[in-house]
Amino acid sequence: AQKVTQAQTEISVVEKEDVTLDCVYETRDTTYYLFWYKQPPSGELVFLIRRNSFDEQNEISGRYSWNFQKSTSSFNFTITASQVVDSAVYFCALHTGANSKLTFGKGITLSVRP
Amino acid sequence: DAGVIQSPRHEVTEMGQEVTLRCKPISGHNSLFWYRQTMMRGLELLIYFNNNVPIDDSGMPEDRFSAKMPNASFSTLKIQPSEPRDSAVYFCASTPRGTHTQETQYFGPGTRLLVL
């Protein structure tokens, strides 16, 4: 069975601080995909990144970076120099080759204070 | 390109009434998913379609819920009769057809349903 654990439920930081959101996953499949989605206060779910199980290269996109480590089954997300607009709920999700389902974590509520 | 379109964006109804939620997937996408989001249970997959055919409806909570996809550009999720515990945000998502990113689900803005 697939499982995604986001142990942190709420994080509060002051603007310009760096913050890391943790994600640990479980699957027996060798082929799988990991995702991060952002849900701002307006409620929509915004796709941020997709990573496949064969590509462990870290990725950087502006202030966002992702650290994928198969050895620890983790796919952590770091926001550098956080901004108030980063305040949102962030979901990590897992998709395996067995079916088309996305398994979501419970989400992490990030609050960035001015 | 337009994203996934959902209507209505907000719905307030009384217990016992029929509710119909609508979704238009991104053009060219061949899979469509319905999710429900609540504080208690988080994001739950209700049902998904591939090429307009329901593949897995194991997440549909009970017979009061039904979903259809009569064509590639339209799907409905119906609740009849509605109950207060159905109050949630309902999301529709779609995935591209046969591309290397076909696992990526793109979500609509959601329908916020309140059943009184």
Chain-wise SSE layout:
The complex is a heterodimer of chains A (114) and B (116).
Chain A: E1 3-5, E2 10-14, E3 19-21, E4 24-26, E5 32-39, E6 46-52, E7 59-61, E8 64-69, E9 74-79, E10 88-96, E11 102-104, E12 108-113
Parallel strand pairs in A: 2-12
Antiparallel strand pairs in A: 1-4, 3-9, 5-6, 5-10, 7-8, 8-9, 10-11, 10-12
Chain B: E1 5-7, E2 10-13, E3 19-24, E4 29-38, E5 42-50, E6 53-56, E7 65-71, E8 74-79, E9 88-96, E10 106-107, E11 111-115
Parallel strand pairs in B: 2-11
Antiparallel strand pairs in B: 1-3, 3-8, 4-5, 4-9, 5-6, 7-8, 9-10, 9-11
Brief digest:
The complex is a heterodimer of chains A (114) and B (116). Chain A contains no helices and 12 strands.
Features:
heterodimer, A: 114 residues, mainly beta, 6-stranded mixed sheet, 4-stranded antiparallel sheet, 0% helix, B: 116 residues, 7-stranded mixed sheet, 56% strand
Describe this structure in words.
The complex is a heterodimer of chains A (114) and B (116). Chain A has strands at 3-5, 10-14, 19-21, 24-26, 32-39, 46-52, 59-61, 64-69, 74-79, 88-96, 102-104, 108-113. Chain A starts with a strand and ends with a strand. In chain A, the strands form 3 sheets. In chain A, strands 2, 5, 6, 10, 11 and 12 form a 6-stranded mixed sheet that branches. In chain A, strands 3-9-8-7 form a 4-stranded antiparallel sheet, with no helix packed on it. In chain A, strands 1-4 form a two-stranded antiparallel ribbon. In chain A, 0% of the residues lie in helices and 54% in strands. With 116 residues, chain B is mostly beta strands. Helix content of chain B is 0%, strand content 56%. Chain B has strands at 5-7, 10-13, 19-24, 29-38, 42-50, 53-56, 65-71, 74-79, 88-96, 106-107, 111-115. In chain B, a hairpin with a 2-residue loop joins β7 (65-71) and β8 (74-79). The model of chain B has no long low-confidence stretch (mean pLDDT 92).
